[in-house]
């Protein structure tokens, strides 16, 4: 199974004008997505053209697996024709959202534009995010060498530790796909340690799930089960529908490898439904294909 589907894309960058004195983005930084959504909705009810509130609403929707809703907010923000760092911020978000919706060509166009603009601007966060996002897209197109180079450029630049951890995680996934499971484990453990130290429970949950899947692949089933349980609980806490689907799919793979066919079928069916609910229908179709092969 291709690991390219699991590369994590992010758009955490917030240019200074968006991040200052903004309770909605403060809520996002705490991973309190319901509070962020409520604050954004209240602001947009009074000021529908508020760019900061629109982008905050988009991220709250994206982080909880409501990708079509996120895209609608992003299109409204884009229509405002913002320039400079705000444009790059929006392009970074359009990149990841379109990618989750399976619209790879559009995602790549925005990702390339975001990186081109970010290289001309002083905002290190926008640049690190654009590098990170384009790395994932390049890997999805089969260019692992370019992806690794972009991740390694992004990591030391990135002031956002949660996003830096995602780059570490993704390098681990690329190495895992290449068969270097020992190095992959090292990179994934570094990502997990960074999130534990920083209290970034949402990203911690994702990266625990990925390490669990590595342990499943290498036959360490009991360790995989423990990490799946820990990671899935954190994903449920974040109310992230997309990664709830990933967790169910990983559980299905573990049950399949343990030859518990009924349990595997139950989890893969749940994963397909959850992917569909998030708008990630290509992932849903893939899970159904796996279910049909049991």
Please characterize this protein's 3D structure.
Helix 4 runs antiparallel to helix 5, helix 6 runs antiparallel to helix 7 and helix 7 runs antiparallel to helix 8 (124-140). The protein has a domain at 1-159: Tetratricopeptide repeat domain (Serine Threonine Protein Phosphatase 5, Tetratricopeptide repeat, Alpha Horseshoe), CATH 1.25.40. The longest helix is centred in the middle third of the chain and has 18 residues, at 181-198. The chain has helices at residues 16-19, 23-29, 33-46, 51-63, 67-79, 84-100, 104-118, 124-140, 144-157, 161-177, 181-198, 201-217, 221-238, 241-257, 261-278, 281-292. It is mainly α.
Essential attributes:
single chain; 294 residues; mainly alpha; Serine Threonine Protein Phosphatase 5, Tetratricopeptide repeat; 16 helices
Give a quick precis of the structure.
By secondary structure, this protein is an all-alpha fold. The chain has helices at 16-19, 23-29, 33-46, 51-63, 67-79, 84-100, 104-118, 124-140, 144-157, 161-177, 181-198, 201-217, 221-238, 241-257, 261-278, 281-292. The protein is globular and about 55 Å long.
Distance between the termini: 14 Å
How would a textbook summarize the main sheet?
none
Strand content: under 5%
| Mean pLDDT metric | 92
What is CATH's topology name of the domain at 1-159? Serine Threonine Protein Phosphatase 5, Tetratricopeptide repeat
Radius of gyration: 18 Å
- What low-confidence regions span 5 or more consecutive residues with pLDDT below 50? 11-17
Give me the CATH architecture of the domain at 1-159, please: Alpha Horseshoe
Under CATH, the homologous superfamily of the domain at 1-159 reads: Tetratricopeptide repeat domain
How many DSSP-defined strands? 0
The structural class is mainly alpha
Provide a count of the helices: 16
Fraction of residues in H or I helices: over 70%
Q: What oligomeric state is this?
A: single chain
**SSE order, one letter for each helix or strand:** HHHHHHHHHHHHHHHH
The geometry reads as globular
